[in-house]
Amino acid sequence: MATTEEASEQALPEIRKDEVAFSHVPEHGFSLFLAKRQKTIHFIRHAEGYHNQANHAYGDDTPCTFSTEGSWQYQDARLTDKGIAQCVKARETLLGDVNPQLVVVSPFTRTLQTAHIMFGGKGYPFIVHNLCRERSGKFTCDKMRNKSEIVKDIQPIYDHSYDSIDFESFGFLAEEDQFWAESREPSDVVIGRGVDMMKWLATRPETEIAVVTHSSWLKHLFRSFGETIEAKDKDELHRLSGNAEVRSVCLAMHKGFYPDGEWVGDSDIFIPTHPSFRRGRWAVQPQTLAAMHKEIQPDSK
After folding, report:
1. Which of 69, 111, 172, 239 is most buried, judged by most C-beta within 10 A?
2. Does an H or E element contain 104, and which?
3. Nearest Cα residue to 10 out of 205, 297, 178
4. How far apart are alpha carbons 184 and 293 in whole angstroms?
């Protein structure tokens, strides 16, 4: 029989997709989850961009509406001086107890800037993910520039602080923004992306993750939960996020979540397809590494 210590080091999550992993007795007023069934997710809205500055000065979203003359200057808006200062202040005052094992970032320039100023130079890996991009359509600020332009601007900044950022795996589906249109992305589609993002986060091996994203995306995600909770908690969860605000939640998994991958024969070893998942409970096993090296040995004579 495996000891507790040995069991905690197994690569296999102990529950399958169709197994229940929590206990809830309504009359008790609380639920019990093992700590390993939970993750802390720090949701962060980007700091002030030039589009925020323009809309605030005007009083509504008219400056960024595609039909407004001059509105395309706000496409994929960058951070203002105020926004950059907000990030510096957040790094120095709000993030003392935030130590993510992974930083997930929307592919817009303003989120990539926010993530770098807040977390750059600390050794955290960054992954750009398309699912947490802003609600698309109608407003020019919510249309991305071409991927090559964004990477050209941002990659050298991350390189300067020796930060690893993955643009390729989940960040861009094409060189050009394939989602923006003159009509606003339907609310149910945005909510669906939010739920899909949460499911993706549930499959990750990390237990503390930061997600740098946008106000409308966060609004749709948060307001799809919490309708029956206590009023003050509901108000806190559902209110609009401010620029550079950090809002932390606990993601508790009721069942097993798995990324794409495969089991090794009849063993209890699961190897995810994407390398970034191969950590912790899904770490590549020594036997697998040894077998790969044997494949490049010279033929025996």
Report:
1. 111
2. strand 102-105
3. 205
4. 52
